[in-house]
Amino acid sequence: MDKGVEMFVSVMVGLVGSAILLYGRRQSRFPHMASGVLMIALTVALSNGWAVLGVGVGVPVLLAIAVKLGL
Predict the structure, then answer these.
(1) DSSP one-letter string for 50-64
(2) pLDDT at 2 over 90
(3) Domain limits of the chain?
(4) Which of 4, 6, 2, 5 lies closest to 44, judged by CA?
(5) Among 60, 49, 53, 67, which residue's Cα sits nearest to residue 3?
(6) What is the pLDDT of residue 60?
(7) pLDDT tens, 13-66?
(8) What is the rounded end-to-end Cα distance, in angstroms, of the chain?
(9) Which 8-state DSSP code applies to residue 46?
(10) Number of C-beta neighbours around residue 66 at 10 A
């Protein structure tokens, strides 16, 4: 992946993570807050664009499964 594309993917995943975090704080939902923090932290920690994209897809899917299970 090109460096510019990696930067764009990281910013977008971090933006979605911060939106999930803010939603979780307003609704007092721990799974949303945890997944938002995880998405923000992993976009900073990972340097590979494909890994960041995997986090951007995987964490919301796991969040949806957790909410469907009633957590």
Answers:
(1) HHHHHHHHHHHHHHH
(2) no
(3) 3-68
(4) 6
(5) 49
(6) 95
(7) 999 999 999 999 999 999 999 999 999 999 999 989 899 999 999 999 999 999
(8) 36
(9) -
(10) 15
What pTM was computed for the model?
A: 0.88
How far apart are alpha carbons 1 and 37 in whole angstroms? 25
| 12 token code pair | 């977008």
CA distance 50 to 61: 17
φ/ψ bin of 69: left (φ > 0), alpha (ψ from -120 to 50), beta (otherwise): alpha
Q: What are the structure tokens assigned to 9, written together?
A: 């993917």
Is the CB of residue 39 less than 8 Å from the CB of residue 20? Answer: yes
14 SS3 class: helix
